[in-house]
Amino acid sequence: MKNQLKIINNGYMYQRGIGMKFFRVTTEYGVTDQWHSVPHHGTDLAMPIGTEIHSPIDGTVIAVKDLGNWNAGKYIKVRTEDGNTDLIFGHLSEFKVKIGDHVEKGDLLALSGNTGNSTGPHLHLGARDAHTGEWINPEKWVDIFQEISAEILGFILMGVKFVGSIIFSLV
After folding, report:
1. What is the dihedral of CA 33, 43, 78, 68, to 10 degrees?
2. Would you say residue 86 has pLDDT above 90?
3. Of 63, 78, 91, 170, which residue is the least packed, with the fewest Cβ within 10 Å?
């Protein structure tokens, strides 16, 4: 049996390979806990402040807002091309798009942060039905975001940046 190499970068552990996640999920959709008295409306992914956030979809930016210390703080909302779903990217430190921009899968949206009501640096990725406003489990978009991040950002090992589908195995 082979084990996947765990890459440590700025204190965050990334595991690469089939079924692995690039960013560690800290809170799943629907969870209630000491920080979420109502079911959590998204998925939280731990990452260092300033990490590039790339779009997992083709769509249009419909909101770029700063709520200060409240809720998701600095956030971006992108509507899917079919117009049925809005993706919310929250707790950002810097915006790289503006309202009305068309984005394609892989385009840079923002830099991650620790803004709003947050317990530490992370990205909140939520999804809402664009017609009813109801929250949707964002799992499929989180998976695409994880894949895009692994492809674009790669990882750094001993000062060398690796990108693409390079996988190290330990026997």
Report:
1. 40
2. yes
3. 170
Q: Which of 37, 20, 42 is nearest to 147 (CA)?
A: 20
Letter string b/e over residues 27-65, b meaning 16 or more CB atoms within 10 A of that residue's CB:
bebeeeeeeeeeebbbbbbbbebebebbbbbebbbeebe
For residues 145 and 152, what is the distance between their CA atoms, to the nearest angstrom? 10
Residues 57, 102 contacting (CB under 8 angstroms): no
Tokens representing 49 are: 């402040």
- What is the arithmetic mean of pLDDT over 48-63? 96
**Span 104-119, mean pLDDT?**
95
| Separation between Cα atoms, residue 109 and residue 95, nearest integer Å | 7
Are the C-beta atoms of 76 and 93 separated by less than 8 Å?
no
Residue with tokens 């899917």: 80
pLDDT above 70 for 55: yes
Q: Which residues pair with 108 in a beta bridge?
A: 54
For 3, 71, 75, 109, 128, the CA distances from 61, given in Å and listed in that order, are: 40, 19, 11, 9, 14
